[in-house]
Amino acid sequence: xxxxxxxxxxxxxxxxxxxxxxxxxLPKVLHPIGGRPLVGHVLATAQxxxxxxxAVVVRHERDRVAEAVGRSTPEAVVVDQDEIPGTxxxxxxxxxxxxxxxxxxxxxxxxxxxxxxxxxEGLVATHRGRDAAVTLLSAVLADxxxxxxxxxxxxxxxxxxxxxKDATDHEAEVAEINAGVYVFRADAxxxxxxDVGQANAQGEKYLTDVVGLARRSGERIAVGQAPxxxxxxxxxxxxxxxxxxxxxxxxxxxxxxxxxxSILDPAATWIDVDASLAPDVTVLPGSYILGxxxxxxxxxxxxxxxxxxxxxxxxxxxxxxxxxxxxxxxRASVGPFxxxxxxxxxxxxxxxxxxxxxKNSQIGEDSKVPHxxxxxxxxxxxxxxxxxxxxxxxxxDVTKHRTEIGDEVHTxxxxxxxxxxxxxxxxxxxxxxxxxxxxxxxxxxLSVAPQRNIEGWVENNRPGTAAATAAENARTxxxxxxxxxxxxx
Length: 489
Description:
The chain is an alpha/beta fold. Helix content is 22%, strand content 28%. It is elongated, with a radius of gyration of 33 Å.
């Protein structure tokens, strides 16, 4: 919109409010939905309009909000609101933060996260097409309680906006509400904002008063109606936060379905806005695709799986798994009941099975950690099979150490690898082995002590117990030759 030959556009985002109805230590505009804070969604939409400048007005928890703005939109100017309350004062300061900008100013609220780019483009187009001084976005609600009402004259033109607390009973019956989104000519703002007073129920400088001032000055007021009223509503409490999250998720899921992903139960699937799904991905119910997770074609995710900032390769299968910052290669298999921590990397065809935890480790091509194991700070080569109950003991109470397991190594059940240690290519280990020293390629590593049976220990040390009685009966039967015979049959 800011290309040469068009009126330049600037954006002011209002993010100064405390949001007391959220009942939260976290500033309202920083509450997340879809993997971003509310204000992050607003700023992303603003950036898509290609404005020449963006100003964000902050106050409550100023530093935390400013930090989030800087991460999302480094080019934005952060403006501090002073002691004078109200949206009119916030925009007045935001306008000052834009310097000598001349053009159109789009005003957005940091707690209205669901507005789409097309809606705002249409609003700006209406503003310019009507040559308006002010253009506002409205919506018609079945229950407009809590919102400012758009009041029109007998000819249908906008006369003014009245806030809920200042409305008469008759005015409160109006169903058309002000969505708190405006386009102003910068010169009209500069002309009228100084005349906005605080003589109202809340003692604030209302931005909405600019509409009435412009009308009385004979300037044109235009209105664009939101195509989806729900998308124009703000978030003021936890109920509205949850509803906004649901609406955003439904929009996100539908977008990926239309792009070729099979999502069997949209209501039971949550996908963050920065995640990406290729065609022919299948997502089963109870799955969470979070952060910047990317899933390649043919992969099957779920059921009951949570992936955060993960990369999943083609035709991989991930079932009942919790994974964060993990890379799952093509045709790899994970789960059920697996836990992949940051730095877990599975090569093509690798397997991590039931009740296995992997952390900061690389598992080579076609290698398997099938069940009941912990693999931490480990490099596993190609074609390896770790027996059940394998543990790479990586921590000596001071430092983390690495275990290296070469290609085509097969280990026995219940092995402990005490790092730092290396298992050479093609080596094998016996069941129950505790591996404290390097194992050469092709060697068999054992740590087996001779079995020792202490006869009569239970009767002597646990007299009177059920175990002692059973042992005594078995011994007596054996001595008299009347032991129970197994029936063949």
